[in-house]
Amino acid sequence: MPKLKRPTEYLCASDFNKLDTTSIQLRLSTQAFLASQARTHGATVQALIARIVDGFAALSRAELPSRSLFIQKRFLRIMSAHGLGSGGIIDVLSSFGVALSGLDQPEGVQASLSNEVLSHVAKLFHVRFEWLTTEGERALPVMYWDADRLSTELVVACRKALRPTVSFVHLRCNSVVALVQREQKTASGTVFFTLQVWPLDRWITSASMEQQLVRLTALCRQLNVPVSNVELARHTLHDLLFGERLPVELLRELPVERLRPTQHSQSRLHSEN
């Protein structure tokens, strides 16, 4: 038996006939536990350790296909919801060298959809990275913004020729959520649209919600950004912000009622201009 450098190290019996050996360091309490269990089962400590490690490895290998299948489904769900077929998927991920054939099987998904690729997809389509990899999580990264932050994003989007459009979702409790749609285009010419949800928090700045809307509407007109007002039921908006479904999936199924700005808002807008 090879000599060990420390008395707290054990070698698995299967390693004795190999040139390369594997050693592990254990706490004294763990050594005592393993020795007790080995006596109970009539095995050596080395054999017991080998069984534990082999069992853990087998369990981990069994979980990989199911996790890969889950990631595959949510990845393809995002692409389908945004109208991207096989060619569009390849275009979106062209910088990562992902082949469509690598997404057909769970094993290929594990190799092709690395954390770097999934982070890119999450950022591009405005979903949480955890939603892509963990079942049951909400889809959207919910953060509250004021008019200044949203204004900056709109200016940047216009400079990048992303042709943004804005819809303000109104609630009776004086809360507003902005839905910002951007036109994206790959290097190969594939065009698709992304949707970002921006809850506007009336407590972030001293300006009232109406004042923020007046400023944002004026900016949209100045930038030639199409703007509209819609109204959704409270439970629908809650599903939009905290649910598992993608905004494009949810809004596509809802008949939304377009609202005209109130007369008071129109007068305030003209006074601002």
Describe the protein.
It is built from eleven helices and seven strands. With 273 residues, it is an alpha+beta fold. It folds into three domains: 9-56, no CATH class; 65-133, 434 Repressor (Amino-terminal Domain) (Orthogonal Bundle); 147-272, no CATH class. The strands form two sheets. Strands 5-4-3-6-7 form a five-stranded mixed β-sheet, with helices on one face. Strands 1-2 form a two-stranded antiparallel ribbon. A hairpin with a 5-residue loop joins β4 (176-185) and β5. The longest helix is centred in the N-terminal third of the chain and has 37 residues, at 45-81. The radius of gyration is 28 Å and the shape is elongated.
List the helices and strands and how they pair.
Elements: E1 9-11, E2 23-25, H1 28-41, H2 45-81, H3 86-92, H4 106-112, H5 115-124, H6 129-133, H7 147-159, E3 165-170, E4 176-185, E5 191-200, H8 209-222, E6 227-231, H9 234-242, H10 247-252, E7 257-258, H11 263-272
Parallel strand pairs: 3-6
Antiparallel strand pairs: 1-2, 3-4, 4-5, 6-7
Low-confidence stretches: 1-19, 256-273
How many β strands by DSSP? 7
Order of strands, main sheet, comes to 5-4-3-6-7
Name the shape in a single word: elongated
> Based on the structure, what is the oligomeric state of the protein chains?
single chain
Q: Note the run of SSEs as H and E.
A: EEHHHHHHHEEEHEHHEH
Main sheet attributes: strand count, strand direction, barrel closure: 5 strands, mixed
Average residue pLDDT:
75
Q: What share of residues are in beta strands?
A: 5-15%
Q: Work out the helicity level.
A: 40-55%
Q: Give the terminus-to-terminus CA distance.
A: 88 Å
Gyration radius from CA atoms, angstroms: 28 Å
Discrete helix count = 11
Structural class: alpha+beta
